[in-house]
Design a protein that fits this description.
single chain; 137 residues; alpha+beta; Gyrase A, domain 2; 2 domains; two-stranded antiparallel ribbon; 32% helix; globular
Length: 137
């Protein structure tokens, strides 16, 4: 299992990266709470057909380039199966991230914003119910 964490991106942005990972290696990929989890080749009968852990660093860099994220983010390897996606300060976000709510737009006063997906709620009850779903999934 390989994990890719980022506190600088929302879940919908991580989902786009996860989809690209899934398409590249044809492996199960999940997004949960600022983290992408990739099921690597140890889980499969034929590890030769899925070389995720063997070339993850090189492959994720290609994905970042494809998604035009290579100038705004860098990959930091924490250990053999854990990576972190870190925002480079002062660089502009890719257009697709800005278009899907990645900007610095703040919720108006009195509105609750989910830190995981960016949805806005009118009251704390709706917000609380929603955030619990992130932990259940």
């Amino acid at each position: 299992m390989i994990s890719l964490r980022s506190s600088d991106l929302k879940e919908n942005h991580l989902a786009q990266i996860a989809l690209s990972i899934q398409n590249r290696w044809d492996v199960a990929t999940f997004v949960k709470m600022h983290e992408i989890v990739v099921m690597d080749d140890e889980e499969y009968e034929d590890p030769a057909s899925r070389s995720v852990s063997r070339d993850f660093s090189r492959g994720i860099e290609a994905i970042m380039e494809f998604l035009e994220m290579n100038e705004a983010f860098k990959i930091v390897k924490e250990n053999s199966s854990k990576y972190r996606l870190v925002r480079i300060q002062g660089t502009p976000l890719p257009k697709w991230i800005s278009d899907t709510g990645g900007g610095t737009k703040k919720a108006p006063e009195g509105i609750y914003e989910c830190p995981h997906c960016g949805k806005w709620f009118n009251n704390d009850v709706e917000y609380s119910m929603h955030t619990k779903l992130h932990y259940i999934i």
